[in-house]
Amino acid sequence: MTIEALIEAVPPPVTPQTTFDGPWEPIEAELGTPLPQDYKDFVRLYGYGNFLEIIGIHVPTSTSPYVRLVPQVPAICYALRGEEDRPYPLWPEPGGLIPFGKTDFGDFLCWLPHGEPKDWGVVVYDRGFGGFEAFDCSLTTFLAGLATGELLPKEFPTNLLPCDEPFAPQPA
Prior knowledge:
Blueprint lengths: L3 H6 L15 H7 L5 H9 L3 E3 L3 E3 L11 H12 L17 E6 L4 E5 L8 E6 L4 E5 L3 H10 L18 E3 L3
Antiparallel strand pairs: 1-7, 2-3, 3-4, 4-5, 5-6
């Protein structure tokens, strides 16, 4: 799935903040992997902000290292290394989870990089309960599913919807 499902569920903001249109090569070189096209489309159209009031997707450029993708990947992977029952390897190991966002509750959103980037699934790590939940869909399909109520990770709040402002742009 591409970003169209997300655009239909949650139109991009009129004045997005901290968008990025490339170049992608330095970021992908630093991470050692190409990134999914739907993520690139997301940060180009939506930029940084609060999705359903609780989710932030890391962006390639920002003055804050807490929302910038490249510093957050190793920082979150370091935090996850202490999880004893972790069913997945972590970046930079081959096939290791690559964090791309987090919730206000301390949950981490990660790509499961199996196959081509367009085929990567999403894994949610629930920090409160230490559980991992995998979703066989892209980042933007995951977000569209949350926005339409078709998808809800088991430890996410059940009252995500209705949401007055499904995506609120924020300076990063």
